[in-house]
Amino acid sequence: MSLLPLLATGAGALLLDVLLGEPKRAHPLVGFGRWAQWLADHLYRDHRAAGVLAWALAVLPWVGVAAVVQWALWRWSPWAAAAWAALALYAAIGLRSLGEHAQAVASALARHDLPAAREAVGRIVSRDTGALDARQVAAAATESVLENGSDAVFAALFWGLLLGAPGAVLYRLSNILDAMWGYRTPRYLRFGWAAARIDDVLNWIPARLTALTYALLGATAPALRCWRTQAPTWKSPNAGPVMAAGAGALRVQLGGPAPYHGQWQARPALGEGAPASADTVRRAVWLVRGGAALWCAALAVACLGGTT
What we know:
The chain is mainly alpha-helical. It has helices at residues 4-20, 28-43, 48-76, 78-92, 95-110, 114-121, 134-163, 165-181, 188-191, 193-217, 220-230, 239-250, 278-307; strands at residues 252-255, 258-260, 263-265, 269-271, 274-275. It has 13 helices and five strands. One of its GO terms (molecular function) is threonine-phosphate decarboxylase activity.
């Protein structure tokens, strides 16, 4: 079977993202967030079964709709199915948005406007930004770009290319529920267990492909070394490889203590080399963009190989 519709799906979704960015009005993921919150308000119980039921009701109906539409379009034309998958994948990725948020931080740092830099980075990280100095702001933004490059770009591409529209919908909605319910707090420790574990499973392969992508496009030897030695020290099984390899690829120091909820929490060091700066944030964005281009180029080569 030709891989050209698959290439059209990935390239089409990225092109739509570059040209249009995130929808400014009526974003479907905003509506999903409201639906998920309604379910949590009405189904919450302090045990795992309730969380499993809420996850299933939140995600599976939309995956089913995406699958039925793709099946119907595929019977008509593979190209129509590819167009549908590209639209779904476009809604799932956030490459342009990631770059815009990161550029706001880098620009504020470059003009030495620390209050503006703290405000900008506060839109993309969950830590207390008011306590951060310029280097810590740059490090926080760089970490966010590297991790969200995996979550909002490469993992969405992986599942969208593998399973089409249903894969893109499944991944993105699962990722949102992890962000909403996957906290290890007294309220969500059991109710959010399913959301957190499913997101871990869906991200396991994409995270390691992302780490490899960063290593190939950056300083390869340091990236692989940091991945091997530092990733196991990170509490997240997927963020560890991504951020360790990304920090090594950029030859920058990340990780270390960070403030959350009014207290500084110890975190392992990541990477090696120079402290983070405005330039580091920009290079992290280019690493993610270069990775997306590399994935499309790899698909194009596979298509050429399949036609010879």
